[in-house]
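User: Let's play a game. I give you a shape written as tokens, and you guess the letters that built it. Ready? Here's round one.
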């Protein structure tokens, strides 16, 4: 029989999360990701508006 202390649930419960410091580079990376996300959403919005303006208006 396997050792009960080596099972995955026991190890996960016994593991203690170490607190890490968040450096300025991490916040810069998050800001860059947010800027890219905003740019993609804005580009999609402008693309849809341009596409809709080129079509015949609805009745």
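Assistant: Ready! My guess for every position:
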């Amino acid at each position: 029989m396997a050792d009960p202390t080596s099972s995955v649930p026991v190890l996960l419960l016994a593991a203690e999360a170490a607190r890490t410091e968040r450096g300025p580079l991490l916040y810069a990376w998050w800001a860059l990701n947010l800027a890219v996300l905003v740019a993609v959403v804005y580009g999609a919005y402008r693309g849809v508006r341009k596409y809709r303006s080129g079509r015949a208006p609805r009745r």
